[in-house]
Amino acid sequence: MEIISFDSELYKELAKKIDFITDYITKQELSNPNNDIDDTWVDSYEVCTFLRISERTLQRLRSGGQVAYSIISGKSYYQIKEIKRLLKEHLIKSGEDCLDDLIKQHKQYNETRKRNKQA
Asked: Is 73 part of a structural domain of the chain?
């Protein structure tokens, strides 16, 4: 492992640049009206909580190849468009109101996370 050290002023300058880039990307995402919610990724907890289904039901859908998902650091993530498809094909017996709750709560969670990172 190689250790690199540099001046604290240089570190502060680098941190400011990273914050500027982060702010720029966040503003672009918020100002882009074409930002489609269907491409948003949500985790298993959110899916189960807001669609009112069990972890086992979701596991069964994954095992049966009925839902597309990704695993990152041992945690499963799903795109909103996949959840909509499951509802449309009646593979999950939840209503559109549950999907709306999922989307709304996910947005609130992301906003809270962004505010906590800035603090």
From this structure: yes
* 5: in domain: no
Instruction: For residues 110 and 113, give the distance between their C-alpha atoms in angstroms, rounded to a whole number.
Output: 5
Using an 8 Å Cβ cutoff, are 98 and 51 in contact? yes
Does any domain span residue 107?
no
Whether 89 is covered by a domain: the verdict is yes
Q: Which domain holds residue 67?
A: 38-100
**Per-residue pLDDT tens for 38-90?**
888 888 988 888 788 899 999 999 999 999 999 998 999 999 899 888 888 87
pLDDT tens digits, 5-31? 888 899 899 989 998 888 887 777 666
Domain count, the chain: 1
Question: Is-above-0.70 flag for pTM?
Answer: no
Residue 51: phi, psi to the nearest 5?
A: -95, -5
User: Which residues touch 102 (CB under 8 Å, ≥6 apart)?
Assistant: 42, 46, 47, 50, 51, 80, 83
